[in-house]
Amino acid sequence: MGDRVRIYEVGPRDGLQNEASAIPLDTKLEFIERLVAAGLREIEATSFVSPKAIPQLGDADELVTRLPAASWVRYPVLVPNERGMARAEAAGAKALAVFTAATDAFTQHNIGMTVAESLTAFEPVLQRAGELGWWRRGYVSTAFGDPYTGAVDPHQAISVAIRLLELGVDEVCFGDTIGVGVPVQVTALTAAATKAGIELDQIAYHFHDTRGTALANVVAGLGAGVRTFDSSTGGIGGCPYAPGAAGNLATEDLVYLLDESGVEHDVDLELVLDAARFITAAVGRRLASKVGQAGGWDASTGKPVGRG
Ligand code: HMG
Ligand code: MG
User: Fold this and answer.
1) Distance CA 44, CA 10 (A)
2) Which of 70, 107, 216, 271 is buried deepest, with most CB atoms within 10 A?
3) Which residues line ligand 1 (CB under 6 A)?
4) Pairwise CA distance, residues 56 & 279, whole Å
5) Tens digits of per-residue pLDDT, 50-72?
6) Residue spans of the chain under pLDDT 70
7) Which of 50, 63, 171, 173 to mutate to test the pocket of ligand 1 (most atoms within 8 A of CB)?
């Protein structure tokens, strides 16, 4: 596998699903436009879930019809069931993510199903998406810990991932939903997953930065050979059904790390910082990410860059 890293942006979905205030559709679209301008090629745009569960994304149908036309950008949408699939298809989506977890407790709170029930519900969804030629991802949340039951055995997460791959997903994404994981766990989970037959290029990681370990976890993932990482511009995000979840790893922090490490990717740091300032101002938050505060760094002058 190559050394180029895929940065999978989840700000418009994971970021905005957790905001208390209603965000206008035009603001969401402008955020996505700025992400496209920054070079992001995979932008998880929204969710076709129950608007009662996630009112913040209740405009998904219209949002997808108005996404910036950019043939090089993939815009996956979250789909929990056949109802969501029908809506996503009608809106013109072309890529999806189904989402379950390593643990029944979180899955019950999040989507009202056990893990086994969720896999049954995804079967027709993934089959239909396969017929349509869509790219398909499967999330395994709580891969490092569950907010209701505690520690999680990596093999629990891996067996769910294997079932998702059998159902046809192109990639599985292990989520540290509440941000409790540390690098040795990432190394161990990756090794156990590949030993169980999952290819490195079928694995993505999704770290919430609740306890400041997300970037260290990325370094462990890189060291283990994983090349796809989720992040959220401005570090916004969290799941309303995961008590204690804070924002995702910030895209600007990830981009800085990769740039300074000489790892190739597609994203421009100053333009991500521009998008981060835009969205945090729009939701009335302080830009709290480390690189958001300090800016990048110009090695030729020693001065910070991109602080606006
Ligand atoms: P339910 O209440 O168990 O199911 O919800 P239901 O089938 O009884 O439906 C209840 C109502 O919702 C009905 O409407 C349905 O028609 C409607 P009513 O008759 O009451 O008027 N409904 C829908 N409406 C629109 N679109 C749909 C849909 N489905 C049902 N697709 C359900 C089950 C799965 C729908 C619900 O629990 C739900 O939507 N949950 C979504 C939760 C969610 O989005 N959580 C955040 C994403 S996961 C996450 O953040 C973690 C991740 O980032 C990775 C990580 O961090 O680890 C991905
Ligand atoms: Mg998440």
Assistant:
1) 5
2) 107
3) 14, 17, 47-50, 52-54, 78, 80-81, 83-84, 87, 99, 110-112, 139, 141, 175, 177, 206, 208, 239, 241
4) 15
5) 999 999 999 999 999 999 999 99
6) 1-2
7) 50
Distances (CA, A) of 136 to 128, 165, 246: 11, 10, 26
CB 247 within 8 A of CB 236: yes
Element housing 218 (H / E): helix 214-223
pLDDT score of 2 = 64
Residue 100: which H helix or E strand, with range? Answer: strand 95-101
Find the ligand nearest to 139 CA: 1
Which pLDDT score, from 0 to 100, does residue 161 have?
A: 99
pTM of the model: 0.97
Identify the three-state secondary structure at position 93.
coil
CA of 247 to the centre of ligand 2 (A): 8
Q: Which atom of ligand 1 is nearest to the CA of 245?
A: 56
Pairing of strands 77-78, 171-176: unpaired
The pLDDT of residue 212: 95
Which letter does DSSP use for residue 287 in this model? -
Q: Look up residue 161 and give its two tokens.
A: 């991932």
Task: Give catalytic status of residue 173 as yes or no.
Answer: no
> How much is the pLDDT for 245?
81
Are residues 219 and 260 in contact, defined by beta-carbon separation less than 8 angstroms? no
Identify the helix (H) or strand (E) that includes residue 224.
Answer: none
Instruction: Find, among 267, 178, 160, the residue nearest to 214 by Cα.
Output: 178
SS3 content of the chain, % helix, strand, coil (to 5): 45, 15, 40
Q: Quote the pLDDT of residue 308.
A: 79
Residue nearest to atom 8 of ligand 1 (CA): 112
